[in-house]
Design goal:
Layout (H helix, E strand, L loop, with lengths): L7 H9 L13 H8 L25 H10 L2 H5 L17 H18 L4 H10 L8 H11 L8 H12 L13 H8 L14 H25 L4 H4 L3 H14 L4 H30 L5 H5 L9 H19 L2 H23 L6 H4 L2 H4 L1 H11 L2 H12 L9
Helix pairs in contact: 1-2, 3-6, 5-6, 5-10, 6-10, 7-16, 10-13, 10-15, 12-13, 16-19
InterPro entries: dGTPase-like (IPR050135), HD/PDEase_dom (IPR003607), HD_domain (IPR006674), PHydrolase_assoc_dom (IPR026875)
GO molecular function: dGTPase activity
GO biological process, one term: dGTP catabolic process
Length: about 400
């Protein structure tokens, strides 16, 4: 039975835009829809803490819809299409940060709908979660962390906040995208913190984190087999993958080749999503929270069973040793280290090479952080071309 939210804030918000001219086209406004559709523990638009710089509401888009749209229309989001995940330099076939982000949003939206969460918020968080990644996949982040070690290192999650708070431009009234506090706070929970344990994220943020983990491992298996870094027979020796293979065979009979790889990836995602859903469902049934704030006061709800976590750790151990430490990946990382380190030092010696938007932040950030952040904004292609332009030598990454 659907429970309708009748809190004063929800009803007041719904009434505030009820007389908008758009209402004549039929259908409730978003506050009324949320009151009907969302669970009590979801994050309601009526309860948002708003934006740092006030902007009036829109009657046909919720605050979190607007956040999602601001993210997907941003320059930083578009650049994800030319930022590789793991396999840059190994093959033309690989996932980019953008395709990974879209896949995370799809999986997270599925889980969000099961539990009647705020899907607009889920999508906003999913599309935002990887926006701060530098070029050249994990290799690029590792090298930037080394270059910037003297000023606290580099975190793509932290840099994501820098992008949406400072570097993106959409209005002369403020820097950044002026996203809601809930979206910014959820992104902050992804940053490692020292000291006391922070409160749990909103359930919408928890399922985005779970979806990221689910898709990450499954698609790294897919890409690694496809580009030939590992053989499908090696992967099938892992208990989790073998279990997925058996499920695929039960459903379709014996499958081979590329179809087998795709079916295993499908089952890997489906098995993990089902497990997370079952765990959340059990926790909610035992003691259902009555508000988003109550969710945040409890331990994380979006978890996996101990059995699945053990199998997942074994899969990730395999990926680390056989894929991420594969000679082709290690060689690529060495080339990235040479190129990015040389560029980083070049920007320190020649701050005039920095674009105005970055140069204008040198006094605020310091030269080291400005140089690293500029590199982090680059796509793979732009970084390669910039290296050749500044140093007059072929890039060590090939493709000349």
């Amino acid at each position: 039975m659907i429970q309708i939210n009748t809190s004063p804030s929800s009803l007041t918000a719904a009434a505030s835009i009820k007389d908008d001219p758009l209402s004549k086209f039929g259908g409730p406004n978003y506050h009324e829809r949320e009151a009907i559709l969302l669970a009590p523990y979801a994050m309601f638009s009526a309860n948002t803490r708003g934006r740092e710089v006030y902007e009036p509401d829109q009657p046909y888009r919720s605050p979190f819809q607007r956040d999602r749209d601001r993210v997907v229309h941003s320059s930083a989001y578009r650049r994800l299409s030319d930022k590789t995940q793991v396999f840059s330099g190994v093959s033309d076939y690989h996932r980019t940060r953008l395709t990974h982000t879209i896949e995370v949003a799809s999986v997270a939206r599925t889980m969000g709908r099961v539990f009647r969460l705020n899907e607009d918020l889920v999508e906003a968080l999913a599309h935002l979660h990887d926006i701060g990644h530098p070029p050249y996949g994990h290799s690029g982040e590792d090298v930037l962390a080394e270059c910037m070690a003297g000023v606290g290192g580099f975190s793509h999650n932290q840099f994501g906040l820098v992008l949406v708070d400072q570097l993106e431009t959409r209005s002369p009234a403020y820097d950044g995208l002026n996203l809601t506090q809930e979206v910014l706070d959820s992104q902050r929970t992804r940053i490692d913190k020292s000291g006391g344990k922070p409160k749990s994220p909103l359930l919408e943020a928890q399922i985005v984190d779970a979806a990221d983990s689910v898709t990450y491992d499954a698609h790294d298996v897919d890409d690694a087999v496809k580009v030939g870094l590992v053989r499908i027979e090696q992967v099938l020796e892992l208990p989790l993958v073998r279990r997925c293979y058996q499920k695929a065979c039960e459903r379709y009979g014996r499958v081979e080749g590329g179809v087998l790889r795709k079916m295993i990836v499908h089952e890997l995602i489906d098995l993990q999503v089902r497990n997370v859903i079952e765990n959340i469902g059990a926790a909610l049934a035992e003691n259902p929270p009555q508000s988003a704030a109550e969710v945040q006061s409890r331990p994380t709800l979006a978890t996996m069973s101990e059995e699945l976590l053990a199998e997942k750790r074994e899969l990730e151990k395999f990926l680390y040793h056989e894929v991420y430490r594969h000679p082709a990946i290690v060689q690529f990382r060495e080339r990235v280290q040479y190129q990015l380190t040389k560029m980083y030092r070049g920007y320190l010696e020649h701050p005039e090479w920095l674009p105005p938007k970055i140069a204008g932040r040198v006094d605020q950030w310091g030269r080291e952080r400005a140089a690293g952040y500029y590199l982090a904004t680059m796509t793979d292609t732009y970084c390669t071309n910039e290296f050749k332009k500044r140093f007059g030598e072929p890039t060590p990454l090939g493709g000349d």
